[in-house]
User: Fold this.
Amino acid sequence: QSVLTQPPSVSGAPGQRVTISCTGSSSNIGAGYDVHWYQQLPGTAPKLLIYGNSNRPSGVPDRFSGSKSGTSASLAITGLQAEDEADYYCQSYDSSLSASGVFGGGTKLTVL
Amino acid sequence: EVQLVESGGGLVQPGGSLRLSCAASGFTFSSYWMSWVRQAPGKGLEWVANIKQDGSEKYYVDSVKGRFTISRDNAKNSLYLQMNSLRAEDTAVYYCAARHCSSTSCSSPWFDPWGQGTLVTVSS
Assistant:
């Protein structure tokens, strides 16, 4: 059971906008710790998608955006494409745990 | 091209040992903290261990403390994970990754890039 809660699944049609939430608490996101997002395509390693709440590494399309407010963060994907079908994970830090980083449980995005 | 390539995974009996390796190329390996992150079959991601650039600081998740040892050889651009007293619950794909911090704080680092992973199966 992760301290960062994500919905198990979300779905959307091509071209639509979807959002994936990452809900934490006062010991992680609410304490001001940055949130990062990863995309894991089927059978591959995770890939950094968003770092520092809202920054995109070079090469990541601007269809992907991140935001943070209070004890939650969100990943938004606009203009949904078939190749966006993947698992998405949020990651932050929790001051109550002796871990360098904590991950959300992951969200499976299905493109209808 | 920035690349991390893991090796050393396999099938091992409970109580056994395994040593994972991660070969880095395309970036200045010695300038980065490095990490191991694992993913049990069908499950999410779990941070396992970190090591500082010069190897002087090492941190582990509670579940592997005393059993796993992270190390590195900057001359060989390589990261290692020695795993002893393996348990069934250690079965996972193990990824190595470079750890990054913001310019102002390292309280919430992120991981990039990641290797392709190596599968460790602990079973009799």
About this structure: The mean pLDDT of chain B is 96. The interface with chain A takes residues 35, 37, 44-47, 50, 59, 61-62, 95, 99-100, 102, 105, 107-117 of chain B (CB under 8 Å). DSSP finds no helices and eleven strands in chain B.
